[in-house]
Design brief:
Length: 309
């Protein structure tokens, strides 16, 4: 199976994705076109099964800590994926922060999807921390409204760090499957142990319930500096102490992070195969630094080669 929709429909592993953040809204129109052209050219060389486009929101309430990098609004991910990158003929998985928009706007979007014959891919995200309120659209309600658009193929988020804290992320995954999610994309993985714990509980749950597991796409993101490391930790990504030491004290943090990501993936891949779980990869390129973008393409090539062996 070479088509992303075929793999999702079959619940198969081997899904290879590449993830990006849309450009900043403040970018001049000519620069926006240049960025889109550069990304499209890169993706044509990598040939992933699909492109993930994130919905970047300001999360001022995260942990009560100051954001290491200032928040700058980005282009609407739906517009960027389907308009700016319209000529890029691969499926696009668009993240949508459902808690950051009015219900009527969400209903209008669902109605527009229903009126088309093509299939669409999406991942719903709840309201950013510190911004949930009476006007926020809960995920459960968003899933219910999405049922009226059968051509929308939904994925869900899986966070191993949340599983370490509450030990119920596998139950969240099962509940999301009940609401129509057909695959999962994880937060960036730097802690193999917590990821394997989540996969273990998920595998046991689907087995005991006589259900088929959904594909779990593991996200990997190069870390090019100590400042980037601090930002990733602020986002909630877990770094074991030994691994954080490796990155902080390496002569080349970026190269070391790519090597570590490959090692972590190999470890988790072997475990997932043992548990007969279908897994895939999603390599993020959310930095504007050329060195980190180049590192993400190298990491994608390494991990996709391992996945397809």
């Amino acid at each position: 199976m070479s088509n992303l929709f075929e793999k999702i429909d079959a619940g198969a592993g081997g899904i290879c994705l590449y993830g990006i953040a849309p450009p900043k809204v403040a970018s001049p129109p000519e620069r926006l076109r240049e960025i889109a052209a550069e990304q499209a050219a890169r993706l044509r060389l990598l040939v992933p099964d699909g492109l993930v486009v994130y919905d970047i929101q300001d999360e001022a309430g995260r942990g009560g800590e100051a954001r290491p990098f200032p928040f700058l609004p980005t282009v609407n991910p739906e517009v960027y994926a389907h308009d700016s990158l319209a000529e890029l003929a691969i499926p696009k998985i668009v993240y949508r922060c459902v808690g950051a928009q009015p219900r009527e706007a969400f209903r209008t979007w669902i109605d527009q999807l229903r009126s088309t014959t093509s299939r669409h891919l999406g991942v719903f995200v709840g309201a950013p921390r510190g911004r949930a309120g009476s006007t926020s659209l809960p995920l459960v309600e968003a899933y219910a409204l999405a049922r009226s658009a059968p051509n929308l193929v939904l994925g869900g988020i899986a966070i191993a760090e949340r599983h370490v804290a509450k030990e119920d992320e596998h139950q969240r995954m099962l509940a999301k499957q009940e609401h129509g999610c057909r695959f999962f994309i994880t937060q960036a993985v730097y802690d193999a142990s917590s990821t394997k714990s989540l996969l273990s509980d998920y595998a046991l749950s689907v087995q005991s319930g006589g259900r088929a597991p959904a594909p779990v796409v593991l996200t990997f993101s190069p870390c090019g500096s100590v400042r980037t490391l601090e930002f990733m930790k602020w986002l909630g990504i877990s770094f074991p102490r030994w691994l954080e030491n490796e990155l902080r004290h390496s002569a080349d943090t970026l190269e070391r992070s790519v090597d570590l990501c490959e090692s972590i993936f190999t470890d988790v891949q072997d475990y997932a195969r043992e548990k007969r779980l279908p897994i895939g990869i999603n390599v993020e390129s959310v930095s504007i630094r050329k060195a980190e973008i180049d590192a993400s393409t190298e990491l994608y090539q390494r991990l996709s080669a391992r996945l397809r062996q």
